[in-house]
Design brief:
This protein has helices at residues 2-17, 23-54, 57-77. By secondary structure, the chain is mainly alpha-helical. The chain starts with a helix and ends in an 11-residue tail after the last helix.
Length: 88
């Protein structure tokens, strides 16, 4: 799925870099990207549900805490819209 997403983004960039812009093609590519995002989102959600079902409440609480810390680090790293210099 990651490779499919990368390919769709490359195709979209190519459409936007073309000598003339085909708005219908750009919109069709946007819809394809949106559909791919939906597939990824569903898969991630199902994976989280599956994992949560085998963890104890204490383990889920600990995992939630770790995820919140990770989210805070990512928010700090990308607070200006891009990684800080040297943090790729």
């Amino acid at each position: 799925q990651h490779e499919a997403m990368r390919k769709l983004h490359a195709e979209q960039r190519a459409l936007l870099a073309a000598p003339s812009i085909d708005a219908a093609a750009v919109e069709a590519k946007r819809k394809q990207l949106q559909a791919q995002h939906e597939l990824v989102s569903k898969r991630m959600s199902q994976a989280m549900i599956d994992a949560a079902r085998v963890l104890t409440p204490e383990q889920r609480a600990k995992l939630n805490e770790r995820m919140a810390k990770h989210e805070a680090r990512m928010a700090e790293r990308f607070k200006d819209g891009a990684p800080k210099r040297g943090e790729r």
